[in-house]
Amino acid sequence: MRTFDVIVVGGGHAGVEAAQVAARMGMKTALVTGFVDTIAIPPCNPAIGGPGKTQLVMEIDALGGLMGRVTNESYIQARVLNKGKGPAVWSQRAQIDKDIYPANMRKRLMNTDNLEIIQGLAVDLLTENNRVVGVKLEYGDEILAKATVLTTGTFMKGKIYISAWSKEAGRWGEFPSYGISDALKRLGLQILRFNTGTTPRLDGRTIDWDRLEIQPGEEGITFSFFEAPNPPGYKPVYITRTTKRTMDIVRMHIHLTASRASDMVKIGPRYCPSIEEKAVWFPDRNSHIIFLEPVGLNTEEIYPNGLAISLPVEIQELVVRSIPGLEDAEIVRPGYTIDYDLIAPHQLHPSMKVKGIEGLFSAGQINGTTGYEEAAAQGIIAGINAALYVRGEKPLVLSREDAYIGVLIDELTTHPIREPYRMLTSRSEYRLVLRQDNAAFRLSRIAYDLGILTEDEYKLVKERQELIEKAKEKLKKTYLNKEHFDFLKGKTSAYQVLKRPEVHADDLIEYVPEISHLDNQGKLTLEIDVKYEGYIKRDLSLINEAKKLSQLGIPEDINYDEVPNLSREGRDYLKEFKPATLGQASQIPGVSSGDVVALMLYLKRIKGLE
């Protein structure tokens, strides 16, 4: 019988972050996984990042996580999304190689001191007096630890479906876990069940690429403050769209989808709908965008993002071949849906420790989230706090003001969850402050103080921060006039000049040489801090005001469709719950703080309070 400080059950994106950070904090750590070769694989789309998600990746990186570093050495295409909008919602997204990413992650884990990887399915929790003291493996071994972190993903009583056909599995081709779910029930925890789905994989050799729109990548994009990008190669993404024939085929066979033809649980992710759900939710719309994403450099497989489906395979083939460029496409792996058990996350503390049970933490999809980034974010917090728990120290709790991770955990732990949770930029009321470019400045001191980041890594953060501040001070002290820029009518500080939308940091290097000492990320931070200084202050003021105005009444006949800037999710929940006050609206699960601010502004306007 082996003994550890921390056991992490599950080697997905939450598990690897939890295990490596606990080990780096000096804990003797065991990572228990059903199959070592599938550690950190991307079982759905081969991508990291996106709106709200890259912010999480950069915060994980700032806290000493691996996701951003491994993405930098594994991506084969990357772009910046939402460039046409404000910097609060700029988000990078990378296509990762599905084989290189997990291989790089495994290599890092195997080179981590204090970390042992153990292959085997955990089938039970070992308990003593309402305390979890370890796990039992399928082949009879028992492993003891002072803290156990569950990161089981979709494996707890997982079951996959294609139409009426079903099979018990944690993922396609992998065994599910049964004992852990039953053990949690014995401990008195509420267990929920959600579903999620994936697309068929296509043979790229059978796609007519000449008919499709290419979406090239961009160079120099980084997902880590500490390690420069070093991609192993490049493949582009292509774009196509569904047609009327596509959607007619789906609608004609809608009764055969897994949600109708089987006993599958019906609760799935709102923000990643299947093609069948699109047919029902948008009956008058036939054109839906499909991104044909490369899966890796050494395979011809293609992931058609936007085409999640659980219809019979022969119908999947008809659907695929009704799409321009895919008329002769061959399906390599069929799309399917999976349902699985999870812990109702309101039973967790913000530290990710399970309430009322000593020694037990959980992170990732087991807590009702969807997405690799959401899982990894919970994983690093759970790993840090498992280590602090073993040390007998105060847990790390990030607030909504600190990080997107704080927003994520706050919303999971304070409201009952009704569907898989996905991070969105709109969920953060502080999104102009909590940007991807300044994550290291916000959070790296925490990781340094905990002994996760090295002296050299933290020094790098401080040096860049000091360079940015020096550039700001020089901008304020440097004055320009019409001789420098035609649009200037009088003597103006370079700081004020940089606030103009057409002026960029590089335009001022001649007059403020301190800017030349910044890399591209540093220049971006400098520009955003200067250009949006007023908006950042205004946003903070609005949030404080929203708290004061929680008693503001909401008319019974309000038309939420007329309220600008509400998220679709928030609008749906407001219509359903019909809150009487702004304060009540803020307590509705699914109504973000951003929705509350939007509603507050609308109510003030119609009540003449502006």
Q: Give the N-to-C terminal Cα separation.
A: 68 Å
CATH level 3 topology of the domain at 201-338: Elongation Factor Tu (Ef-tu), domain 3
How much of the sequence is in beta strands? 15-25%
Q: Low-confidence runs (pLDDT<50, min 5 residues)?
A: none
The main pleated sheet reads as: 7 strands, mixed
Task: Identify the CATH architecture of the domain at 201-338.
Answer: Beta Barrel
Gyration radius over CA: 25 Å
Overall average pLDDT = 94
**Name of the CATH class of the domain at 201-338:** Mainly Beta
Label the structural class: alpha+beta
Per DSSP E runs of 2 or more residues, the count of β-strands stands at: 22
| Shape verdict | globular
In helices, the fraction of residues equals: 25-40%
How many individual helices?
Answer: 19
What do you see in this structure?
With 610 residues, the protein is of the alpha+beta class. Among the domains are: 201-338, Elongation Factor Tu (Ef-tu), domain 3, CATH 2.40.30.260; 458-534, Orthogonal Bundle (Arc Repressor Mutant, subunit A); 549-606, Orthogonal Bundle (DNA polymerase, domain 1), CATH 1.10.150.570. It is built from 19 helices and 22 strands. The strands form five sheets. Strands 1, 2, 6, 7, 8, 9 and 20 form a seven-stranded mixed beta sheet that branches. Strands 14-15-16-17-13-18 form a six-stranded antiparallel beta sheet, with helices on one face. It has a four-stranded antiparallel beta sheet with strand order 11-10-19-12. The longest helix has 23 residues, at 455-477. The chain is globular, with a radius of gyration of 25 Å. The termini are far apart. The relative contact order is 0.13.
